[in-house]
Design a protein that fits this description.
The protein is built from 18 helices and 14 strands. By secondary structure, the protein is α/β, with parallel strands linked by helices. The chain has a domain of 156 residues. β10 and β11 form a beta hairpin. The longest helix has 18 residues.
């Protein structure tokens, strides 16, 4: 997301913190007869007034523990951008944020890019519990860092004693219940869902729990609830890298100049033996194997425009030019040589420990075909297994989702985490699902000519013909390798 955009978006992140209206006691009724109140939407604060600020803000309350609905309550934020036509369709578009992200703080992209949808429909952003200003963090051992069981117990116990509230309830399951409470309190019967990355998990979980309240769902760059995507990272990331290698070999600029497969093997061997210490702008940082491979995935392979930089940068790393390249890419490591712990989101850890898609079995990681990314995932698996044995967490989401709701899956073949294979099984349980595969695309696909096709799907609840998707994708050219 760029730094520019409508003034309302730049102001609302701060304004909503101080100007959100409170939940009023009168309003909608739950199916079990209990009153859920209604959300009284109002100004998002003094910085968000006037004709350039159509957004309306509010707060609502949900049980901290949904098994105790009359118990302690917590407050969540909601942002609604009313339909620009002034005649909103009855079903709004609800945007679901990525892992650990705030939907409200992610509002600029849908506001800027889904113009047709925003003309006809309200755009709704409900902040997920444990994110945004209510996010809590813990300083926990790094994956792969030397730490015994006592160190893990002490770190988890000390963290839990300092948190403002119990994180065990910050599950996807609870977030789905929160979202449905917001739907009722805002007065909507059915909603359209738009989720990307973890937002796909949220969307599928809501479909699983409340299919009768979903009109359509757009699910971009995600995986099914019963696909252990992080466990499969060695295979998915290797496939993404191999696709890049094949492109480089066939390219008249990249092919003669670089050998990214050889260079990655060399770097993995070196970093397996010992980390690299570099000085960047007067700061000393240590780059270990796990951090390096994580950077390859998130900093390069996740997006086509950064992936094309990887062959040249790998060659530079082999030559020892770490500081120059990392500074140029804005990827300056924050690790000090002696650091053995890092801040971890309490909400993310709860989801990691409770949702089926987030599970990582160390034995299953080791059993996968050889991959440059196995060591990183093995360290993550051991770390997560140790923490989840200590971390309190309620039950998360799992299993297949069966629904006849029109669902649009969009995935890129070069996505290092959520390739098309991770949603393919939905064809057996979602008869009205459409699958769009974007050749060479990474994590985050919908842009350009795909946007009007997606908006047609939302408007009509019917996917455009396959030929229209193919025509659009045929016009998308991969970024060129730099000379």
């Amino acid at each position: 997301m760029g730094a520019t955009g409508p003034a309302w978006r730049r102001a609302v992140v701060v304004a909503v913190l101080v100007g959100a209206a409170a939940l009023t006691p009168a309003g909608c009724s739950r199916g079990d007869g209990r009153d859920v109140g209604r959300i009284d939407l109002g100004s998002c604060g003094p910085a968000a007034e006037g004709p350039d600020h159509p957004e309306r803000c509010g707060t609502f309350q949900v049980p901290l523990d949904w098994t105790q609905p009359g118990g302690e309550q917590m407050t969540l934020r909601v942002l609604v951008v009313p339909a620009r036509s002034g005649k909103a369709a009855p079903d709004p578009l609800v945007y679901l944020a990525g892992f650990g992200g705030s939907a409200i703080e992610s509002a600029q992209w849908p506001y800027d890019n889904l113009q047709r949808t925003g003309w006809d429909r309200d755009l709704v952003f409900v902040e997920q519990r444990g994110t945004g200003p209510e996010a809590q963090t813990c300083d926990l051992p790094l994956p792969g860092a030397p730490a015994d069981e006592a160190a893990y117990r002490d770190a988890v116990g000390g963290c839990l004693s300092r948190l403002a509230r119990d994180p065990r309830h910050d599950t996807t399951t609870s977030a789905v219940a929160d979202l449905d409470r917001a739907r009722q309190a805002l007065g909507y019967d059915r909603i359209d869902l738009y989720g990307a990355s973890y937002g796909v998990s949220m969307g599928l979980a809501y479909l699983q729990a409340h299919p009768e309240h979903v009109r359509t769902a757009v699910l971009e760059s995600g995986s099914l609830l019963d696909v252990r995507l992080w466990q499969q990272v060695p295979s998915a990331a290797q496939h993404s890298f191999d696709e890049l290698v094949a492109r480089c070999e066939a390219d008249p600029v990249c092919g003669p100049a670089y050998d990214p497969a050889r260079d990655l093997r060399t770097l993995v061997e070196r970093l397996t033996s010992a980390p690299v210490t570099v000085d960047i702008s007067g700061r000393t940082a240590t780059i270990d194997l796990r951090g390096f491979l994580g950077g390859v995935i998130d900093g390069y392979l996740a997006r086509p425009e950064t992936a094309v930089l990887l062959p040249g940068d790998l060659a530079a790393f082999v030559r020892g030019e770490w500081a120059d390249v990392l500074a140029k890419r804005g990827m300056v490591p924050q690790d000090a040589p002696s650091r053995t712990s890092e801040p971890v989101s309490a909400q993310q850890l709860t989801v990691r420990c409770s949702d089926e898609w987030a599970a990582i079995d160390p034995a299953a990681v080791a059993a996968q075909p050889p991959s440059s990314f196995t060591a990183m995932t093995a360290a993550d698996a051991a770390w997560q297994e140790r923490l989840c044995a200590l971390w309190p967490h309620d039950e998360g989401v799992a299993g297949p989702v069966a629904t006849d709701v029109p669902v649009l899956f969009v995935n890129g073949t070069a996505d290092p985490a959520d390739p098309p294979a991770n949603v393919a099984a939905a064809a057996a349980t979602m008869p009205n699902a459409t699958f769009v595969t974007a050749p060479g695309a990474g994590h985050g696909v919908i842009d350009g000519c795909l946007i009007p096709l997606v908006e047609t799907f939302v408007a009509t609840a019917t996917a455009p013909a396959a030929a229209e998707w193919q025509r659009c994708l045929g016009t998308v050219t991969a970024p060129a390798f730099p000379a």
